[in-house]
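Morning. Coffee machine broken again, so started the prediction first thing and wrote up yesterday's gels while waiting. Chain of 207 residues, entered below exactly as on the submission form.
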Amino acid sequence: MNRLIYFSPVVIPIPRTDIYKRLGYRQGITRVSSGRIKDTNRIIKEAAALIKLKAMACILTIRKVEPPRIYLSQSIAFNSRQVCDFLKGYSEVLFMGVTAGRKITQAIGKELKNNRFNEAVIMDAVASEMVDSSLGWVMRQMAKKLKNEKKTLSDRRFSAGYADFTLDNQRTIYRLLQLKRLGVSINKGFILIPEKSVTALSGIKVN
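Came back before lunch.
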């Protein structure tokens, strides 16, 4: 399955528990006033309203593995022993890309410019956790499709920039997923723009 799958919109519940964890809140340990919680929840809601989640996915076949090199369909290859180990026993690879859109990053920038650091930190946490949750959502959707084909998707994922899977591999993934269609660009440092945009891969095996 080399065709692209487009998800828009990606609709998920606000992951409040994870957002609070990212902000350093520990249930039963961290003491926060009711007023502070009310303000935080307001900002979380405002930030979530600015986030427009979209995603792309694509599946490639694993042609050959010669560590540290792994060869895929569409003449794509990666040089990473960690990825070779991660995909050991799998026959295909699911690539995913998700973005929260530009409005939320613009809002965070505005808060920072106006020295409203608390608001900026909360908004950043909301965007980060919603994007992360969206990758999980895409994986669940794809797992359902694959189940009908008697295939299983790994519950783990791997991203460029982790271990020896260097960040420059992001450009290949960016092109493969055609993330430009989501309004995402990539700079010379292989960073996706807007900032709250991520990619990942996961393994697929035949049952």
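The mean pLDDT is 95. Going to sketch it on the whiteboard this afternoon.
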